[in-house]
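Sample entry (143 residues):
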Amino acid sequence: MNFQTQHLATLSKYAGIGFIAGAVNHGMFSEQRSLVTAGMGVLFFLIGAYVENRSQVGETVSWGDVLGFGILSSIGLGFFTGGLQHFPDSPQRSVWVVPLGFFLSLISLYFGNASQRANAKAVLLYALGGGAMVVAACVAAWG
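Predicted structure, serialized as tokens:
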């Protein structure tokens, strides 16, 4: 993938995550606008993921994978980053949004990259250990 394509794909994916993060954390203030913002975020992320996947030589990625795991990944990453960013403002929401985002992003990465799937036991240990640390840190920060 050439530099320009890689940059645009990355920019689109991260912008999508940013839109979702903002929508998740500002949703209680403007529900309709936040739904539109989250939808735009998912769309930006999917466009970036599609461009990135299409540019990979020798690998075919199905639209089902891009859509299914892309949506799950974008929401998970948006929850995680948005929850961290707004923990001081809304700890009662962030205490569950951050761990949920961690697990959603982990699941989407694991199943979305089947060709590079890691050892299931190692991933499970990482999920349990990392998840426990994320949950403990969130509870400690909330308390």
